[in-house]
Amino acid sequence: MKNTVSIITPCYNSEKFIGETIESVLGQTYKDWEWWIVDDCSTDDSVEIISRYSDPRIHLIVLEKNAGAAEARNAGLEKAKGRYISFLDSDDVWLPHFLETSIKYLQKNNEELVYATYKRHDEDLKPLLEDFIAEDNITYDRILYNCPIPMLTAMYDSKRIGKIKIPDVDMREDYAMWIEILRKIPTARAIKEPLAIYRIRESSYSRNKFRILRKQFAVYSEFLKLSLLKSTYYTLHWALNGMKKYEKLKFRGNR
């Protein structure tokens, strides 16, 4: 298996942002990649914008019916042929050395999963919050409390752990995937250097913690089959960690 990176991107009504996302991948210093962009029945011009790019490494899949982010990612994962798997949402941006730095880290340190610090900007890519600093040495026991592994800066070695299908867990599918991976490997490792920009959108589900509190509880009670007591315990820890993620953080513009 070659050291190709398979990039997987679900896309739904991202005409405003997808161009910047594509340009960030085209600008990577590491060039051995393939990209599976899976459009989940967008009703705007997302498909038209993606189709303008003629790079043979970019592959567009248009789903016949709206299936959600998990199914869209799995559709790309089925097509992926690269050794390394990485995910990028259709409104986020990688910094130029993301792929090169991540692969070098995995190879040099003999690791299976790595992720990095990222910048937090607003919809116009202007600095909004302080960088989210990646926490190192995440284990299965640690990830039960909250999800410190960001999807947009993570990369795993499918030659060593296989291609991990994203579980059908409503709104928490990325978290469930990391849990599945950490059942197979001892630790996930972090790069402290910021390697991507996370676009914080006002309409983002991830900003409204109360909206997904019930979904988080379902991860513990239904996906992991934990007891009511343990599910409640971990959900409360998740909620507290989620509030700490955004509260008391300085806006960069006020420095």
Mean model confidence by pLDDT: 92
Q: Can you name the CATH architecture?
A: Alpha-Beta Complex
- Spatial shape: globular
- Write the H/E string, N to C: EHEHEHEEHEEHEHHEHH
Distance between the termini: 47 Å
- Could you give me the name of the CATH homologous superfamily? Spore Coat Polysaccharide Biosynthesis Protein SpsA, Chain A
Are there runs of 5+ residues with pLDDT below 50, and where? Answer: 248-255
Query: How much β-strand is present in the residues?
Result: 15-25%
Helix content: 25-40%
By CATH, the topology is Spore Coat Polysaccharide Biosynthesis Protein SpsA, Chain A
Structure characterization notes:
Strands 1, 2, 3, 4, 5, 6, 7, 8 and 9 form a 9-stranded mixed β-sheet that branches. Strand 1, helix 1 and strand 2 form a beta-alpha-beta unit. The longest helix has 19 residues. Helix 8 runs antiparallel to helix 9. It is globular and about 55 Å long. The chain has one domain: Spore Coat Polysaccharide Biosynthesis Protein SpsA, Chain A (Alpha-Beta Complex). With 255 residues, it is of the alpha/beta class.
